[in-house]
Design brief:
The chain is 34% helix and 13% strand. The strands form two sheets. It has a four-stranded parallel sheet with strand order 3-6-4-5. The two termini are 22 Å apart. Helix 4 packs across helix 5. The protein is of the alpha/beta class and 204 residues long.
């Protein structure tokens, strides 16, 4: 399989075992749902009446005061009392099998390739952190909902692209399935796509 380098009009070879895999929708759905579940912080916590700070003493006697009967200042009916059905943190984690994750990754990359949504350029180096220079460097592609994958973090590229809200700059080691499906187009540098191929081919 071959893909065109957009900036130099030259074809490079890419692995068919990564970019020519049948799309497995059920596998992708399962991995995406598990990944999103694992991103949840699960920090919700409310106090029931047994956890609220305060005395357990009966505020006043049961009868004869003219007021409604009360057994505790920690009652949910009182201000600063406990919550009736207090929500508690529940540990929820789905273990993502490594082989399944790699399979879903390849499946998505292959589908993006078939839809002509993957682009590759030889390099993306600029010397001055200027948004205008950055845009001119990418004049061959529509910048709407574009994910740019580079090999290493580059401060100049980050400063040049941070004002472009429809663009995300991503290091290849941090690339995940959510980013791949959320963006219309994926732009790899030559170094980043080769590094990604090496990682996916070496994973067992």
């Amino acid at each position: 399989m071959y893909i065109l380098l957009k900036d130099v009009n030259k074809k490079i070879k890419i692995s068919s075992s990564i970019f020519d895999v049948p799309f497995n929708s059920s596998l992708v759905h399962q991995i995406i749902k598990s990944y999103q579940l694992n991103l949840r912080q699960n920090t919700v916590s409310q106090k029931s009446r047994s956890e609220v700070k305060g005395s357990n003493k009966k505020p006043w006697r049961q009868k004869g005061t003219g007021r409604a009967r009360a057994g505790s200042i920690k009652s949910p009916l009182w201000r600063s009392g406990g919550v009736t059905f207090a929500r508690k943190y529940k540990y929820k984690r789905n273990k993502i099998n490594k082989k399944m994750y790699i399979g879903a990754f390849k499946s998505i990359l292959s589908e993006l390739y078939r839809q002509s949504r993957i682009f590759v350029i030889s390099d993306l180096n600029i010397n001055i952190p200027k948004t205008k220079i950055f845009i001119n460097k990418l004049n061959f592609i529509n910048l709407d909902k574009l994910l740019i994958v580079v090999k290493n973090y580059n401060k100049i590229l980050f400063l040049s692209s941070r004002n472009l809200y429809s663009i995300k700059l991503c290091v290849v080691n941090n690339l995940n399935l959510i980013d791949l499906i959320n963006y219309k187009k994926i732009l790899f540098t030559l170094q980043s796509i080769k590094l990604l191929e090496g990682k996916l081919l070496n994973e067992k």
